[in-house]
């Protein structure tokens, strides 16, 4: 049995209030200098509290706001209580820690060493000898076993190797690169405490992600691993925190309650390693404040980070001497229009002497010349590069490895922009390890795929059918924002809870909609491909490709929002006649045939009934849209007339609510409003009618071609579509065509070719 602990000095004795009082003086500071504290907000939606959609909340204590009357008017000062510099290591108030402590962390301020018996509690992880704090976090999350990508990438990254990791969506890649970084930084924090100065905490790890949501998610995921977890020190007594919490509530033994109370009374220490996200949609001032407080692991989107770097030489210098660089979803980052920013950031991470081409000596091929001294990874303190995605082409991996060994070859042309991007990375490791465990055809084993072939203008009806037939949390991907704007009111009129997610929404609204989607049962998220990559939304049951994705990679990543972490998932591809060619090409590039994807069965009789509802909803939407447009134009006209001091005709000048005006326009508006109300009433009545399958008698539930009573007895009664069996999506698929063996599958061939590179070069 192995029990691991880390060494560290203990906090010195708590100062008396008298000694504190002596050491306090007041100081005027700017808002940026205040020690803002992060307010923890639950990851789930907290609708009703008014906090949903906020990127981050911070609070501040012990600050007086002082107003000073000056010649230029009233000036606001923030006045804080400051501890005298000589009180090093004792900056926190008794029983309370603050961010000041985090900034002035030194040997005296280190928290008690944590212990965790990984051999007993997490045997499957014990070979990695992770920092005990990480062991506790994994244990508390019940991650009993590493996922395959974690099992393969962790030993390499912990050894200091550069790693290119390719594994299926939802397979735990975030921790595959996150754990080695956190392990290194936590170990270092105890063994080489950081100097007591604000500039003493440079950014050590930079994680670049393509979208804001993904960056925030990665940051929150890594922060979860750093938050102190209370676990009984004795392995035998330890239990998952959920059980411990339940027992603390009085359901268990008194001993456990006492243990819990004891832990709760201990002062909470600030994290030794801090993780923060810098993304668009947050105020620049706040971002600078976060950075000035000291961030060890910075998770960022390239665009916003480059904006800040341009104004912050200090940060630029820190990026030049990073210890870890991670590209998460590297292949997506070049699609977002931020390639230039990304390239600029990557330039900062290049070795200064690497600009020249180094040709191998003695006529040897570079790979041969360097292969021997390459096994150990990067040298101590050098930049370690980790690149992860679910889709990195084999060719790319091949070029990457060759380039990293052979340096840039004269006249070498990259095959693609992504190729180009990765070839710009300056791997310090002569032979970066490539761990590719992506499944053949890009299909996750727990995912069931299906398709529907239908006319483009019938897609609304098929989608509505799907949503009613298979209730669940559904993520619908559309290729254009216009499509989302059109579909959203339609679904709302039909009583389906739907939320939009696209780049033209404000960041606050984007997060709010994501929160609502997570917390509303059977909700629908109508999204563009900004939601295709990396988002780890719990329990997405279905993914619908309302429009066929443009590339095979997008298809794989969109599908990857469901069937995550070995859970079951379902995807539906809606294919119009003019999209079939794209589907064929898409499947082909995944090494598959279009016919392999199973057909989703549709009760056409039921579909026809839904078409009538859709038709009515469209009509209402069109009348409402017209009325809204006219109102907008009237308002514009009124404002323009006001500005030019022109008097408008009273009919035009009147508001809808104005009493007494009876001009022709007003009458037209009234008639339109009455029509909308009538149509809405009609739709309401239609929605209230049960949807009954053909051959089903609702009067006598035991008669008819299909007896409802039988379904009720079997517990398979469908609440919305009477007479249809209640099944999960995917349970009633029309079997896919069996694949004919056609020699070696494409992907396998590529893999074999890749495996032979060592010898070939
Ligand atoms: N060892 C583990 N055991 C159980 N669950 C895990 C483990 N590691 C990670 N997870 C969970 O699996 C889910 C997917 O992880 P993550 O988001 O890192 O996947 P990913 O491979 O990055 O996916 P994508 O390619 O879509 O970005 C997360 O909810 C995560 O908490």
Automatic annotation (TrEMBL):
One of its GO terms (molecular function) is RNA helicase activity. Residues 154-410 form the Helicase ATP-binding domain. It catalyses: ATP + H2O = ADP + phosphate + H(+). Its EC number is 3.6.4.13. Keywords: ATP-binding, Helicase, Hydrolase, Nucleotide-binding, Nucleus, Ribosome biogenesis, RNA-binding. Residues 650-660, 750-761 have a biased composition (Acidic residues). One of its GO terms (biological process) is ribosome biogenesis. A motif (Q motif) lies at residues 123-151. Residues 1-19 have a biased composition (Polar residues). PANTHER family: ATP-DEPENDENT RNA HELICASE DBPA (PTHR47959:SF1), ATP-DEPENDENT RNA HELICASE RHLE-RELATED (PTHR47959). Residues 1-25, 237-269, 650-671, 740-761 are annotated as: Disordered. It comes from Lentinus tigrinus ALCF2SS1-6. Transmembrane segments: none annotated. SUPFAM superfamilies: P-loop containing nucleoside triphosphate hydrolases (SSF52540). This is RNA helicase. It is found in: Nucleus. SMART domains: DEXDc (SM00487), HELICc (SM00490). Belongs to the DEAD box helicase family. The lineage of its organism: Eukaryota, Fungi, Dikarya, Basidiomycota, Agaricomycotina.
């Amino acid at each position: 049995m192995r029990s691991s602990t880390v060494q560290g000095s203990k906090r010195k004795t708590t100062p008396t209030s008298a000694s504190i009082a002596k050491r306090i003086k007041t100081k005027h500071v700017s808002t940026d200098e205040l020690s803002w504290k992060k307010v923890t907000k639950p990851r789930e939606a907290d609708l009703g509290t008014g906090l949903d959609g906020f990127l981050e909340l911070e609070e501040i204590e012990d600050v007086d706001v002082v107003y000073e009357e000056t010649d230029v008017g009233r000036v606001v000062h923030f006045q804080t209580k400051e501890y005298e510099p000589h009180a090093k290591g004792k900056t926190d108030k008794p029983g309370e820690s603050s961010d000041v402590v985090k900034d002035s962390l030194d040997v005296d301020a280190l928290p008690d060493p944590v212990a965790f018996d990984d051999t007993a509690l997490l045997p499957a992880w014990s070979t990695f000898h992770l920092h005990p704090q990480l062991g506790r976090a994994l244990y508390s999350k019940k991650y009993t076993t590493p996922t395959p990508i974690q099992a393969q990438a962790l030993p390499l990254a912990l050894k200091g190797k550069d790693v290119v990791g390719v594994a299926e969506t939802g397979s735990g890649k975030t921790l595959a690169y996150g754990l080695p970084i956190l392990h290194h930084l936590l170990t270092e924090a105890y063994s080489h405490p950081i100097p007591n100065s604000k500039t003493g905490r440079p950014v050590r790890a930079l994680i670049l992600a393509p979208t804001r949501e993904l960056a925030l998610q990665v940051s929150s995921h890594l922060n979860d691993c750093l938050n102190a977890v209370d676990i009984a020190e004795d392995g035998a007594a330890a239990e998952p925190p959920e059980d411990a919490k339940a027992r603390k509530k009085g359901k268990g033994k008194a001993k456990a309650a006492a243990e819990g109370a004891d832990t709760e009374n201990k002062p909470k220490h600030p994290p030794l390693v801090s993780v923060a996200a810098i993304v668009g949609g947050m105020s620049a001032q706040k971002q600078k404040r976060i950075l000035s407080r000291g961030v060890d692991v910075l998770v960022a989107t390239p665009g916003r980070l480059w904006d800040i770097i341009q104004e912050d030489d200090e940060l630029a210098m820190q990026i030049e001497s990073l210890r870890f660089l991670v590209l998460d979803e590297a292949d997506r980052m070049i699609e977002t229009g931020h390639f230039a920013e990304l390239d600029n950031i990557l330039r900062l991470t290049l070795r200064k002497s690497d600009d020249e081409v180094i040709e191998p000596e003695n006529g040897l091929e570079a790979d041969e010349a360097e292969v021997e001294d390459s096994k150990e990874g990067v040298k101590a303190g050098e930049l370690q590069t980790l690149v992860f995605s679910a889709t990195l082409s084999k060719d790319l991996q091949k070029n990457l490895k060759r380039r990293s060994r052979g340096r840039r070859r004269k006249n070498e042309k990259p095959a693609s922009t992504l190729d180009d991007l990765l070839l710009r990375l300056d791997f310090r490791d002569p032979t970066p390890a490539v761990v590719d465990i992506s499944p053949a055809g890009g299909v996750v084993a727990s995912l069931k795929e299906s398709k529907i072939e239908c006319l483009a203008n019938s897609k609304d009806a098929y989608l509505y059918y799907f949503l009613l037939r298979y209730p669940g949390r559904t993520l619908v991907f559309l290729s254009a924002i216009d499509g989302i704007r059109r579909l959203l009111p339609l679904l709302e009129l039909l009583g389906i809870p739907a939320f939009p997610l696209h780049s033209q929404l404000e960041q606050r609204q984007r997060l709010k909609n994501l929160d609502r989607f997570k917390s509303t049962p059977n909700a629908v998220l109508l999204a563009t491909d900004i939601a295709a990559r990396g988002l780890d939304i719990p329990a997405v049951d279905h993914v619908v490709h309302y429009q066929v994705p443009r590339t095979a990679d997008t298809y794989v990543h969109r599908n990857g929002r469901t069937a995550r972490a070995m859970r079951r998932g379902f995807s539906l591809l809606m294919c119009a006649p003019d999209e079939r060619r794209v589907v064929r090409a898409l499947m082909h590039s995944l090494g598959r045939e279009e016919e392999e994807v199973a057909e989703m069965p549709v009760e056409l009789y039921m579909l026809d009934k839904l078409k009538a509802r859709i038709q009515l909803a469209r009509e209402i939407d069109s009348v409402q849209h017209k009325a809204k447009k006219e109102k907008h134009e009237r308002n514009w006209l009124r404002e323009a007339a006001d500005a030019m001091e022109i008097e408008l005709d009273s009919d035009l000048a009147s508001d809808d609510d104005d009493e007494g005006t009876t001009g022709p326009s007003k009458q037209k508006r009234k008639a339109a409003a009455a029509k909308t109300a009538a149509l809405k009433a009609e739709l309401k009545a239609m929605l209230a009618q049960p949807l009954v399958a053909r051959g089903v008698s609702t009067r006598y539930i035991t008669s008819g071609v299909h007896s409802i009573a039988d379904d009720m007895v079997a517990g398979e009664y469908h609440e919305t579509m009477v007479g249809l069996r209640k099944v999960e999506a995917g349970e009633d698929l029309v079997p896919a065509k069996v694949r004919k063996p056609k020699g070696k599958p494409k992907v396998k061939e590529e893999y074999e070719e890749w495996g032979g590179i060592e010898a070939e070069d």
